[in-house]
């Protein structure tokens, strides 16, 4: 069975029509994705990595300021910044692992 973008959209619209407010579910309008080129994904990935880098630099800066005795920086702010950077980094590593796994799976497919 081949599922194309138009048949998928028709199926989603059909399902949207079956939803009723009495079910407690308000249908949301469907949005068309206009551009799905690889360049957008690359820029999105670059922005995400840049954001993780900013979080790590901010965390490092706060830790340095706390160590130097800056009274405007609290220990709780420093720990929170460190944890945010840690969570963002771990999420980035997990995304990378999933991308590598998907790449390996695609490369092992028979032609």
TrEMBL record:
Single GO MF descriptor: cytoskeletal motor activity
Record-given protein name: Flagellar hook-basal body complex protein FliE
Annotated region described as Disordered, given as residue ranges: 1-26
Family: Belongs to the FliE family.
Subcellular location(s) of the protein: Bacterial flagellum basal body
Regions of compositional bias (Polar residues) in chain numbering: 1-10
Keywords in alphabetical order: Bacterial flagellum, Cell projection, Cilium, Flagellum
Transmembrane parts of this sequence: none
CC annotations in GO: bacterial-type flagellum basal body
Chief location: other
Highest rank taxon of the organism: Bacteria
Cross-referenced InterPro entries: FliE (IPR001624)
Lineage: Bacteria, Pseudomonadati, Pseudomonadota, Gammaproteobacteria, Alteromonadales
